[in-house]
Specification:
Length: 463
């Protein structure tokens, strides 16, 4: 058969586009993506990579597998609760629903009674104030880093042109200049504001007198950062918020406190983790926290504090550049008003119940694959740069290391922990309602090692 005859037999574009699977796919994906799929299969046939009689089926399979967004839901079997690589906090059912409801047109900046413009995200602000009654006012922005940037920029801003000739200084302890991850360092971020870092004390010890000695005409604020992702042990000392408040008052300075994790109030499980209520009671003018760490909500930066300071932040031009979108506002409000979040549930998971679930699953897995399947003690972690060194006692199913990539590549992706040549499956961050699904995934990965993977991804169960 000549090249030309061969080409002529390849199904034509109009014929392929008339297939019912295309109509079905149009509800999810756009014309450009559909044409790309069709043309790629035709090219494959021309180049002999796909037999001509299989082109149509290849197009149908590719269309069915195509998803409008590429993010793949995973079961987090690592035991790390706030897992940065897996999107930090998984949202509560209420927050997921709120995002869906806010996805269309919503009254995010309109009062439906008067038809007039209203304050953006008033509901989320109200919910944050109710959850944190120690705060006089609150503001929600894009993320924790943005909140820190806005707070420092606004409180250090100079009132007059003449004063602006001297850059403001933020006084901060050397023990608190943190790299928060992936090479991002808070000191680098802080100096982009134009204010200067005035470092005081040493890595392990900083005293109130260090702060006081650094105060001068250029001082814009006192800044305290919770070094959330590491711990200095031994000969250490720091200055608490209450003591910094007294110093700030003596010199008429604002006090900014970045807590990172965002516990609303103390948690007995995390004795070293500071909370918003405590920092406000101790006298911070503004306290900063992330929405998607221990608070268990969407990515957001929370700013709570004195009415006058928060008003100043809200009016600063930078506030517009870091404002949060309607989906975030909806999810934060639902998180704050809702029941226990998945993050809190995973944090406070009962070790005895975890053991029961893990042993039950291991027994059924062993029966299914007709081989031994061991359960070992395994410590979970808060993760996300929070509560370093706090172990959370639990259990894991121990498998050979080679299972980890197979589990990640399954029809439902399972991310387990790889540690010292073993693959550890920890149930802490998996909702009980997904235990059956996890068992299926484990059986699939362990059982039919030679079989082809299923092509169409299935959805995760409700959580
Ligand atoms: C995590 C963290 C940040 C950054 O917050 P994002 O929400 O990740 O932008 C800032 N400061 C501290 C102390 C943190 O722990």
């Amino acid at each position: 058969m000549s090249d030309e005859d061969h080409r002529r037999r390849i199904p034509r574009t109009d014929r392929l586009l008339a297939h019912p699977a295309v109509r079905e796919a149009r509800e999810r994906i756009g014309d450009a993506a559909i044409r790309r799929i069709v043309e790629e299969r035709q090219r494959a046939a021309r180049e002999g990579r796909v037999p001509i009689e299989e082109v149509e089926q290849a197009v149908v399979d590719a269309l069915r597998a195509e998803r409008p967004a590429s993010l793949v839901p995973v079961l987090n079997a690592t035991g790390v609760i706030v897992h940065t690589n897996l999107g930090r906090a998984p949202l509560s059912e209420g927050a997921r629903q709120a995002i869906g409801a806010a996805a269309g047109y919503v009254d995010v900046e309109m009062d439906l009674v008067s038809g007039r413009r209203s304050a953006r995200g008033a509901g989320a602000r109200e919910a944050l104030l109710q959850a944190c009654p120690e705060a006089e006012d609150a503001l929600i922005v894009n993320n924790g880093a943005a909140a820190l940037l806005l707070a420092v920029t606004a409180v250090c801003a100079r009132a007059s042109e003449r004063d602006r000739a001297i850059p403001s200084e933020m006084i901060v302890s050397r023990g608190e200049l943190v790299e928060i991850g992936a090479g991002f360092r808070l000191p680098d971020l802080l100096v982009t504001t134009g204010a200067r870092l005035r470092e005081v004390g040493t890595t392990n010890r900083t005293h109130l007198s260090d702060y006081e000695a650094a105060i001068g005409a250029a001082t814009g604020c006192l800044l305290k950062i919770h070094p959330s992702n590491f711990r200095v042990q031994g000969f250490t000392s720091g200055v608490d918020v209450a003591a910094l408040r007294r110093l700030a008052d003596a010199y008429g300075l604002p006090l900014v406190v970045d807590l990172g994790s965002g516990l609303l109030r103390p948690d007995a499980l995390l004795p070293d983790e500071p909370d918003l209520a405590g920092a406000l009671r101790a006298g911070a003018d503004v306290v900063i926290a992330s929405g998607d760490k221990l608070l268990g909500g969407p990515q957001a930066g929370l700013l709570v504090g004195r009415a006058e300071t928060i008003r100043r932040l809200a009016k600063h031009p930078l506030a517009r550049a870091v404002r949060s979108d309607k989906l975030t506002l909806a999810a934060i409000e639902a998180t704050l008003r809702g029941p226990e979040t998945p993050v809190q549930a995973a944090l406070h998971a009962d070790p005895a119940r975890l053991r029961e679930r893990t042993e039950g699953l291991a027994a059924r897995l062993a029966a299914a694959v007709q081989g031994p399947c061991e359960v070992v003690p395994h410590e979970g972690r808060v993760g996300g740069g929070g509560a370093p060194g706090v172990p959370l006692p639990g259990w894991a199913i121990e498998l050979p290391e080679a299972m980890a990539p197979r589990l990640r590549a399954g029809a439902v992706a399972v991310v387990a922990r790889v540690h010292r040549g073993r693959c550890l499956v920890d149930l802490r961050c998996i909702p009980e309602s997904d235990d059956e699904l996890l068992l299926e995934c484990l059986i699939e990965a362990l059982g039919d090692a030679g079989a082809a993977p299923r092509s169409a991804p299935r959805g995760l169960g409700s959580r």
